[in-house]
Each structure stands twice: as C-alpha cells, then as structure tokens.
Amino acid sequence: MRAAPLSGTVTLLLTDIEGSTRLARELGERWIEVLARHHRILEAAIAEHDGTIDGTDGDAFFAIFESAAGGIAAAAAAQRRLYQESWPDQPVRVRMGLHTGDVRRAATGYVGIEIHRAARIAASAGGGQVLLSHTAHAAAGDGHAAQDLGVHRLKDFPEGERLFHLVVDGRTADQFPAPRTLPVRPTNVPVLETALIGRSEELAAVTEGLADGVRLLTVVGPGGSGKTRLAVAAAEELLDAFPGGAWLIGLADVFDREGMLSVIAEKLAVAESPGRSTLESLVGRLETDPTLLVLDNLEQLRHASGVISELLGGARASKVLATSQAPLRLPAEHVVSLRPLAPSDGRQLFVETARTRRDLDADASASAIDAICERLDGLPLAIELAASRTSILSPEELLGRLSQSLELLEVRGSAKPERGRSLRAAISWTFELLSEQDRELCADLALFATAFSVADAEALAQLDVLEGLEELLEFSFLRRVDTGGSETRFEMAQTLRDFGRAQLEDTGRLESARRRHADWALTLAEECAAQSPSDPVAASDRLWRRLDDVYSALGWAIDHDPTLHLRLCATIPDALVWLPRGSELDRHLDAAIAAEPPDGGDLARALSALGFVRSGRGDNRAAVELLQRSAAMWRDLGDLSREADALTGAAFPALALAPEAARAVAEQALASAGELADQMRIDRCVAVLAQLDVATGHSDRAEPLVAAALEEVEDPQTLVWLRHIWADCALIGGDPRVAMARYAAALRGLPALEVSPGVIVELQGLAMSLARAGHAEEALETDRIAAAFADHFNAHPRVAFWEELLETNIGLARAAAPGYVAAHPLEDLDAARDWALSLADALGASG
Hints:
Blueprint: E1 7-17, H1 20-27, H2 30-48, E2 52-57, E3 60-65, H3 68-84, E4 94-106, E5 109-111, H4 113-124, E6 130-133, H5 134-140, E7 146-152, E8 161-166, H6 200-211, E9 216-220, H7 227-238, E10 246-250, H8 257-267, H9 278-288, E11 292-296, H10 304-314, E12 319-324, E13 333-337, H11 343-354, H12 366-375, H13 380-388, H14 395-402, H15 418-421, H16 423-431, H17 436-445, E14 452-453, H18 454-461, H19 466-474, E15 479-481, E16 489-491, H20 494-506, H21 510-531, H22 536-544, H23 547-560, H24 562-571, H25 582-594, H26 601-616, H27 620-637, H28 640-657, H29 659-676, H30 679-695, H31 699-710, H32 716-732, H33 736-748, H34 758-772, H35 776-793, H36 800-816, H37 829-843
Parallel strand pairs: 4-6, 9-12, 9-13, 10-11, 11-12
Antiparallel strand pairs: 1-3, 1-4, 2-3, 4-5, 6-8, 7-8, 14-16, 15-16
C-alpha cells in the first residue's frame, strides 16, 4: 500500500453499509463478526489497488488513490467480494462513491470541499452500488463500464453534478433505486470552499427574511466583511424555493443602467427579442420562472435602485438578494448589516485558514492570534489574508509586522478579483466612489484614535461635515458608537485608519492635518481643565476617553511645535482626577521643560504637573523641588491660587523627607490661601496640617480639628481628605471598627471610584482596620485588592509614616493567617472593591 500524496489531485473513495444501525440491532453479538469481515474485504481491495485508508468510523471507510482507475478497480473488487460473501441471515450491502478532485493535507488530516462532494456522492448511492462523479469517470479513461445517470444536485452543492453508475458483474443502474439527490435547479452559485464562520445569525436573518415574504434584501458592510460569502451561503439554502434557480451576478465592473441590465440578461441567458427591450425580456423571464437574483457589489451603481424596482415590480414571484456597502434606500428594502467578527469567531477563522498552510499550535499562539484579530477589527478578509502569511511567519512575527504596512495583507497569484487579494485594494475600491471632499474628510478623520463627535469632526476638518459623515457612515467607513449619552459619536476601524493616514501621506496633507488634530487636542484639554473645578468627574471622564488622541497629538507636537507641546502636556493634569499613563506624561513633561521654554504660566504649570507625577511615583525629593520651583514662579506671576496649590502638593512628598520642612511648606501654602481669602484652599491647607499632625504622632491633636472641619467644609475632595485623616485618627487611637466605618465613608465619597487612585489608600486603611479588629484573612484579601488597584492606576506614592503603619498592621494579619489563600479573582476590580466595602459595612461601627 503506497502512501497517499500530501496534496493535489487524487481520487477519493467513501463507503458505508446501508442500514447498518438496523443490522447491528437485528444481529446482536453477530454484528461484531460481520463488521470485521466487511473491514477485511475493503482493506484488502484498497491495498491491492495501491490505495491508502485515511480513516474509518464504525462501518464507514475513507480511502485515497493516486489514480482514478485504481480507485474504481478497488471499488469494483470490493463490491464483487461483498456480493460473493456468505453473510448470516441477510446480505451486507455497501454504498460507495468515487470522486476525483484537489485536496490538501493539513495537521488535522485531508481538507477541501472535494471531500464533502465525495461524501455526498456516496450518500446518494444505493446499497451495493458504486456512483462516480464525472471527474472520476473522465480521469479513469475507458477501462470500466459505466452508465450516465445525468445531472443531479447533491445536498449542500447548488450546481448540478453529472453522476455515473459503475457496472459490476452486469448489475446495471435499473437494478438500484434512483440516486438520493435533490431536484436540479439552474444556478451558477459556487460552492463555498470553506465554512462560513461567525455569521449564523446574519445567515438566518437573510434566509428567513427572503423565505417569509421579503422581496428585496440587502447585505451591507465594509469591504472585506464577507458580504458575498454570506449571500452565496443564503442562496444555496434558498435554491429549492426558486424553480428559476439562483444566480450570482457580479456587478463590480458595471457603472450604468444599460450595463447592469445587459450583465443580468447574459447570466440568465435571456436573448434579445425583436420589439422588446432588455428590461421587458428580463421581466418576462423572471415572471415565468421565479428566480433569486444575487446582485453582488451595487455600491457604485447609481441606477441600481431604479433597475431593481422595475424588475421586481414586473416579476412578482422573483426576489433580489443584494450586497452593497451602502443601502439602496428603496421602500421595500430590508437591510442586514455585517458587524466585525466576534473575537472567538475571528480566532477560529484565523486558525482554520492558517492550518491549510502550516501546522499551527493555536493554544501556544492564542494571545498573538487574538491580538491580530483585534488589530484587524474582526474583518474576515483581513484575517484570512493575515493567516495566509503564516506559511512564512509565526503569529507572533506577524503581529509585530502588521502595524508596518497594509501591503502585508496581500496574496499574489490568487484567482480572486484584485480587491479580494489585497486589503488596500478592497478599501480603495470603495474609497474611490466617494466625492473628493468626502475622501479628504475620511482621511482627516483617520487621525482620530478614539470615538469622536460631530463637533470634533468639524473642528478637525474645519468645514460642515454632516453630509460627509452620513456618506461615510453609509459606506461603512465609520460606525456609530453607543456611549450611553446624548451625544452621537463615531469611530473608524484601525485598518481604515491606516488606509486614511496613507492617503494623507500620498497627497501631502499629513502634516497640516496633524497640526489641526494637535490644535483640537489642546482645545479639548483646556476646556476640560476649565470644567474640572466645578465638575471634576465629568471633565476627567471627557479627557480620559480621549487620551489616545491627546498622546498622539503630543507625539507630533514634540517634534513640530514645542510651544504647543509644552502647553498641552502642562494642561493635562489640571483636567484629570488622576494621572493615567503617568510615565508617558513624565517623559513628555521632561522633554518640554528641557527645551528651555521662556518663563511663564505654561512652564510653571509644567513644573507643577511633573512634580505631581513624580510624587505619585514615589520620587519625593524631585517632586518637592519641582513643586516649590513652580510655586515660586506662580508668586512672581502674581497667581497666589496656583502657588497655594503647588505648595499644598509639595507638603506630602516633603513629609517623607523631613516632617518639619513639610509643615513649613504647608504653612506657606496656608499663608498664600489666606492672602486670597480663598476658603476652599484654606480648608485644604488645614487638612494638610492635620495629616502632618497624624504623621508625626499627634493624632490626638488632629482629631477634634478634623471633626469640626467636617461640619463646615463643602468641597467634595477636601471632605474625602478629612474623612481619611479622621479614620487615621481612629486607627492610631486603637478603635479599628470606627476606623473601618470612616475609611468606608471616605472611599464612597471619592468623586469617581472608577477613576480615582484614592481608592488605594482607603482600601489600605480598611485592610489595616480589619487586621487590628482580628479579621486577618479579610485584611490580607483587602490589602491584595488595594495592591491590584495600585497596579491598575500605576500609582505608588511613598509616605514613610503610612508605609510603617501598613507594615505594622498587615504584618499582624500575616502572622495570624499564615495559611491565607487569595479569595477573589481580580479581573473585576470594581466587584472586589465592593466586596471590601460590604465587609466594612458589616463589621464597622458608625463613625
């Protein structure tokens, strides 16, 4: 027995015993021996004719032959011996199917649509019969006797298949039942070479809609989203409902009404008739023979809606399934929109495509594959093109190269049309259908890294964009984003953003567009900073959602506009409750200050910002120096409010260096606030001084002052601060249950739990209170949650007295619970935080 070729054109033999379930039930224990004899007969016949058995499943065989003649000879020999065998009770009759076609050897075995075709041919045969496909019959030549059974339709194969009956020992076709096939319908709809992945809901929507009375249904989606594949799959399922057949009619190269009618007539073989127009002839054909027209690629045809209306208006029994990147806007139209593939579906498509080219360990490369699919926005064409590159690149290597060029996603020498071989070509096809103004708008909007509003688009493009946005939305260059608010927002997929940036470069417009984007980012940051004093949560959330855009603008400005760069990075901290991506901002601030800008407000703000960033990272000495330098500049500029803010901020890192020095800084801040009679800043300075009292062992002096201040202070941030200090007093004073309640109150009072690193210290306070109250395991779990938040915010301030307090109290918990096992998964930090709060509510006393 020869080894089967790894891939290429081979002959496939599939067999199974007719009525095997009934035989197994009737024969009982004797079935085992019957099945063994059956196996020996087939194995011998296949081996004698140089076949390879690729698999068996119960009573079914799958064998591969290099030649069609060898496969036919093996099938004939097996049937001859099966007929001659003396079977107990009743004969065993085996149905067989032979087909010649191209297959590929993958890690999972042989793959290819021709295997499924061979299986359908075998399933169509009667017991004791061998059916041949026309390719197997032709490839074998004249060395066998066969009868032509005409064209039949196999299940899941829309086009007709000519079948032949193999005559063995004089048994002709009339001695067997007619092949188990479906009625033949005229069609040119191709068989999908691979399974349709991730579109089951959309497929059901299309097939059920057209089956339930919808006469015009349009599948809408961006280029490469799989519209044609979905339409082909739907047409295959609907074929039996249309006596006139289902016809796939590609219209990508057609741009006018007459051309559209001519191509449809050609596909349906509708000839010109004297005295009748092409439209009239088509309507007559569609009315006589109810037909499903699958009209593919209509976006460039301005007259498509009119033609379809006329066809369906005159032929009431026929229907149209269209694909387009924009709806046709007809009253009777039903639209099914294609969204990006779900992550699991994208992964499956990538793996199945890649495995036709290499052995792929999908589990080992799971994270890289998921990242590739996310980077490609769940676009099926892009995922397939990327997976095709795994013949030379591992998924990890591929991921590293994806950001470099859309040309990576290109397959040369494919039989597909050009726009199906390259992602860039697929996008360009639609892009060229836009007006020049809309093309420029699309390229400009590609600079937005995050979801944007109409106002954002107008600010960037500097023109009225309403009609342009509508056009881009219809052609799937944009998609709406549900933000839960009243403002409509849009986003552009990463692959389209890459394309748009390339257009800006190709047309020489990139630098001017980047400048407008940076100006827009600065305006956004300044608006958020102005909003922050009155509504810090809303301002912070607004800027936080746009940080990718802000940092993109900083990346451009650092090389092109140092003044804008300094102003933007100095403004960011004024607009945020906390400083996400602090290390990145640190680098930008360092660069902006090192550029030696002239003394002024922007420089003073940058120094303050960098001081706060360094304080959050525990670099206390640098933080104090930067904030004091900033305070001195603010005083020179006559802005005592900002001087007080900078000095207040300097007091905490100063505490880690020298308590008395910290007090001097705080009192200096209080003096500045007093000069202004600014009660909010005075209250903050009082809170700083109270915290210094606690840190230096005078919590008994701080507690009554804090209790009194809590009755009068209105500023939410200062209230949280005072509640925290009040909780510190209870903890240090030996009343952990009261401390627990006070830390919980401070935690709940934070302006926004999900965007405030204050969560960290309040959770640490809860953990210490639990430890002192004797709940060691709960204390360790809460401390673990606090550490997870610190990592999340990348905030690790280092204040000596607080670290000592933590070490003492959490150390007690560690000693009391040496066998502690983590209780909560930390994928959901909010849920973990809420667990700690509930625990504090249950155990803490009213504070």
